[in-house]
């Protein structure tokens, strides 16, 4: 399990996208979910190949407030890394991305949370409770086995199942958004079993809440 920090990517992507893309950014970001990634998350997700990462980068704050949030995210990322063995924790911009291999949470071809996975999600819920001024986007991914429609549906169902679990642990539903991406955002080739296994995953983006991000 490794913690990584991505710096400078937000500015580079904004420069690449340009001011003229603002209108489409708002429309596509809204598709991800109001409050998480709104504005630029969808467009940047297309650029980076990751809806979760795009949502974090799209929620950039900057300035003194960004520095404060960044310090908080540093602390939270360290705590999550210690509390959730097996997850990959990354610091991205002013947020955190937590990636679970789907096998850590679900049986193959299922959206039911495994009994032995509950501890991981409870520990995540405890962290979210400790840092209440954050919003969360849960993104489901599959491999390319099966039809596009089936994979899209399964990925959404898995993201929704994780969201319901966190709500059951006391996290307000207003803080949570979900997105199913099916096989659209692979991180490895689907031509090998190991690649397929890597592509079956849940990515969780943690960003400052909309209230904190208000100018």
Q: Which CATH top level class fits?
A: Alpha Beta
Strand fraction band?
A: 15-25%
Mean pLDDT: 80
Q: Identify the quaternary structure here.
A: single chain
Helical content, roughly?
40-55%
Number of strands: 6
Radius of gyration: 16 Å
Distance between the termini: 35 Å
**How many structural domains does the protein architecture include?**
1
Q: Helix-strand pattern, N to C?
A: EHHHHHEEHHEHEHEH
Describe the strand arrangement of the main beta sheet, using strand numbers: 1-2-3-6-4-5
Task: Please provide a brief summary of the model.
The protein is α/β, with parallel strands linked by helices and 215 residues long.
Q: Can you put this structure into words, describing what you see?
A:
This protein is an alpha/beta fold and 215 residues long. It has a single domain, classed as 60s Ribosomal Protein L30, Chain: A, CATH 3.30.1330.60. 49% of the residues lie in helices and 17% in strands. It has 10 helices and 6 strands; from the N terminus they run βαααααββααβαβαβα. The chain has helices spanning 9-17, 22-32, 41-48, 51-58, 63-83, 102-105, 118-130, 148-168, 193-199, 210-213; strands at residues 3-6, 88-92, 95-101, 134-141, 176-180, 201-208. A 6-stranded mixed sheet has the order 1-2-3-6-4-5, sandwiched between helices. Helix 8 links the parallel strand 4 (134-141) and strand 5 (176-180). Helix 2 packs across helix 3 (41-48) and helix 3 (41-48) crosses helix 4 (51-58).
């Amino acid at each position: 399990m490794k913690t990584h920090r991505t710096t400078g990517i937000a500015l580079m992507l904004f420069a690449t996208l340009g001011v003229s893309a603002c209108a489409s950014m708002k429309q596509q970001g809204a598709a991800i979910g109001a409050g998480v990634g709104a504005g630029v998350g969808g467009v940047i997700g297309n650029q980076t190949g990751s809806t979760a990462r795009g949502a974090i980068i799209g929620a950039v704050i900057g300035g003194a407030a960004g520095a404060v949030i960044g310090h908080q995210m540093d602390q939270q990322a360290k705590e999550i890394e210690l509390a959730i063995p097996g997850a990959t924790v990354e610091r991205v911009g002013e947020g955190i991305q937590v990636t679970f291999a789907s096998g850590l949470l679900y049986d193959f071809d299922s959206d039911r949370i495994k009994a032995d996975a509950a501890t991981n999600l409870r520990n995540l819920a405890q962290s979210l409770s400790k840092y209440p001024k954050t919003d969360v986007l849960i993104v489901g991914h599959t491999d390319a086995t099966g039809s596009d429609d089936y994979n899209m549906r399964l990925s959404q169902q898995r993201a929704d199942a994780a969201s319901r679990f966190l709500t059951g642990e006391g996290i307000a539903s207003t803080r949570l958004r979900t997105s199913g991406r099916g096989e659209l955002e692979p991180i490895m080739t689907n031509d090998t079993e190991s690649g397929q296994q890597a592509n079956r995953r849940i990515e969780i983006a943690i960003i400052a809440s909309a209230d904190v991000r208000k100018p």
